[in-house]
């Protein structure tokens, strides 16, 4: 049972809380129905993501056995067989689809987005992740699909800025994650991924700089846009840009100086500095839209 739980990686489910972004930026955190729909959608995506983790470990089993860290994964270590992996994969997907019935509205639209996410990631595991740049774009688009599903489930209109920021931020995090692979390749002479040879530190560092810069600019444009000011009845949201800047700088420090950006989820769960910045950003944002 322990190895089955490790295979579906429940600790990674926290990233699916991104589906709550429409609720947060839509100023609907005090609406119980919206929060409920967002949490159910996050659960649906968690099951779907776990299904993909199973397929990913099946496809990468040989590469993982040669990896210094991933060799301990249940599939690579032989603790779970490939047939068991496939069984768990489809079970998780079925649970994902069944969970959509817990939604009280837009069930079909939300389920359709999750199905598309699942099919896209199957293509990613089987082929698309072999191509540099395309791989990080697919991963980032997966998070866009999450917020689209969150928007459908909660009936909250998504600002174009939120969609752009989500894609750009996840692209930044994906490049930072690939940087960890490049560093390991340079140290060991072995590429952790098939497409790692199409990256190098110069390219990765420039990509991280570009995506972080554009993400910050996009957020600032969001805070000062007439649409946002009219929606929240305040023009003080630009002040929260400070926390976005500090958060991006801290993550770049983790990637470039500490060289431990291989798992963004672990960074967020263990780095106190990042947790403080995210919490401060959230509290400042909420204070401005609900109190000021």
What can you tell me about this protein's structure?
There is one protein chain. With 292 residues, the chain is mainly alpha-helical. The protein has two domains: 1-158, Tetracycline Repressor, domain 2; 160-291. It is built from 14 helices and no strands. The longest helix is centred in the middle third of the chain and has 29 residues, at 160-188. The termini are far apart. The model has no long low-confidence stretch (mean pLDDT 90).
What share of residues are in beta strands? under 5%
According to DSSP, the number of beta strands is 0
The residue fraction in helices comes out at over 70%
Number of helices: 14
Tell me about the largest β-sheet: none
The coarse silhouette is globular
SSE run: HHHHHHHHHHHHHH
**pLDDT below 50 for ≥5 consecutive residues: which ranges?**
none
Rg over alpha carbons: 19 Å
Number of domains: 2
Structural class of the helix and strand makeup? mainly alpha
CATH topology of the largest domain: Tetracycline Repressor, domain 2
pLDDT average, as an integer? 90
Determine the CATH superfamily of the largest domain.
Answer: UbiA prenyltransferase
What CATH first level of the largest domain would be assigned?
A: Mainly Alpha
N- and C-termini, Cα separation: 50 Å
Q: What is the oligomer described by this structure?
A: single chain
- Can you name the CATH architecture of the largest domain? Orthogonal Bundle
């Amino acid at each position: 049972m322990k190895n089955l739980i490790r295979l579906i990686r429940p600790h990674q489910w926290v990233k699916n809380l991104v589906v709550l972004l429409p609720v947060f930026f839509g100023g609907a955190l005090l609406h119980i129905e919206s929060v409920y729909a967002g949490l159910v959608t996050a659960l649906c995506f968690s099951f779907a993501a776990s299904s993909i983790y199973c397929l990913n470990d099946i496809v990468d089993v040989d590469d993982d056995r040669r990896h210094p860290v991933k060799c301990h994964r249940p599939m690579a270590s032989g603790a779970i067989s490939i047939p068991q992996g496939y069984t768990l994969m489809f079970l998780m997907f079925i649970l994902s689809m069944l969970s959509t019935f817990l939604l009280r509205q837009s069930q079909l639209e939300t389920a359709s987005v999750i199905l598309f996410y699942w099919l896209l990631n199957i293509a990613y595991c089987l082929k698309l992740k072999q191509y540099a740049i395309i791989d990080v774009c697919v991963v980032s688009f997966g998070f866009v699909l999450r917020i689209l599903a969150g928007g459908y489930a909660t009936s909250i209109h998504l600002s174009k800025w939120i969609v752009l920021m989500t894609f750009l931020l996840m692209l930044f995090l994906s490049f930072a994650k690939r940087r960890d692979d490049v560093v390991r390749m340079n140290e060991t002479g072995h590429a952790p991924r098939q497409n790692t040879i199409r990256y190098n530190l110069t390219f990765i560092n420039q990509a991280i700089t570009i995506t972080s810069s554009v993400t910050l600019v996009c957020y600032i444009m969001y805070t000062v846009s007439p649409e946002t000011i009219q929606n929240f009845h305040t023009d003080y949201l630009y002040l929260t840009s400070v926390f976005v800047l500090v958060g991006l700088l801290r993550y770049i420090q983790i990637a470039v100086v500490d060289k431990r950006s291989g798992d963004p989820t672990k960074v967020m769960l263990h780095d106190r500095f990042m947790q403080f910045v995210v919490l401060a950003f959230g509290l400042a944002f909420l204070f401005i839209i609900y109190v000021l």
